[in-house]
Amino acid sequence: MAALLPVGAVGVRGGAAVTCPCGLGEPYETCCGALHSGLKTAPTAEALMRSRYAAFAVADEPYLLSTWHPTTRPGELDLDPDQKWLRLEVLARTGGGLLHTTGTVEFRAIYRWQGRREELHENSRFVRDDGRWLYLEPVRD
């Protein structure tokens, strides 16, 4: 079994493919790595959300910013190198498929920060803009 990709690392470790942090169990290079490098685009809102989680795990700020809708995108990100992303759980989704223009993905992201296990729970809204999925914002109740 391949090792989990450490923050800031990409691709291969010791000649073996590294498992993508997104949770699908595929090698990083052919999974989210292909999206991060621009070889592919996310076909669904869930695929984009998984690739964004993986981008947080590998500290790929340019990818995070480029997949954020321009109306809600911050000018810059300040990723904390001490925050270690451990696991992603997709809880629910609405729309966001190949024939949709909007969608939501509810997820739980488990991480370690300052020696404590923490979690981020969010229901994220995505829109397809010019054929490309973008993160818009959290769903507000």
Automatic annotation (TrEMBL):
Gene source species: Saccharothrix espanaensis (strain ATCC 51144 / DSM 44229 / JCM 9112 / NBRC 15066 / NRRL 15764)
Domain (YchJ-like middle NTF2-like): residue spans on this chain: 44-137
Protein name: UPF0225 protein BN6_31160
Family from the record: Belongs to the UPF0225 family.
One Pfam family matching this protein: YchJ_M-like
